[in-house]
Amino acid sequence: MMVERPATWTRQGGELPKRDRASALMRGACHRCPTCGKGALYRAYLKTVDACSACGEPLHHHRADDAPPYFTIAIVGKIIVPLVLLVEQSYKPDLWLQAAVWPLLAVILTLVTLPLVKGALVGYQWALYMHGFDPRSGGDESWDGVGFQSWRDGP
């Protein structure tokens, strides 16, 4: 059952209201809708739902693209590399053991981190009205706000 969600913008209001970036990032990282925090963000491992089941916010037009894997590689690398160096210097384990443990740990950390990062990025895009989250875009994903003629400007 869809719940009626309040409008975040109207023509009469002019400026778009500020959205809290921190809460949007946290809601997205927790795999929840960045708008209400109640509906699920994903229907599969990394596949976002078309719209929030709780508030109806359309989520299909996000453009996460290559950013989540990029950030995930940076995060996992900053965790794994110091651990490898610390363990090597402290315990000097056999090479076969390191060859078995570190790639496995890197894959597990990547699989855990990737949905968190993608969710946070979708939340951030929502908070900044990017890629179709802007009500003035009419749902157009490629609309960048350039050429927008305000209703006050006239024809």
Lay out the secondary structure.
Blueprint: H1 21-29, H2 67-91, H3 95-127
How would the global form be characterised? Answer: elongated
Report the biggest beta sheet as strand number plus sense, adding barrel if it closes: none
| Number of DSSP helical runs | 3
Low-confidence stretches are 149-155
Structure description:
This protein has one domain. It is 43% helix and 0% strand. The chain contains three helices and no strands. The chain has helices at residues 21-29, 67-91, 95-127. The longest helix has 33 residues, at 95-127. It is elongated.
Structure keywords:
155 residues, elongated, mainly alpha
Q: Can I get a quick summary?
A:
By secondary structure, the chain is mainly α. It contains three helices and no strands.
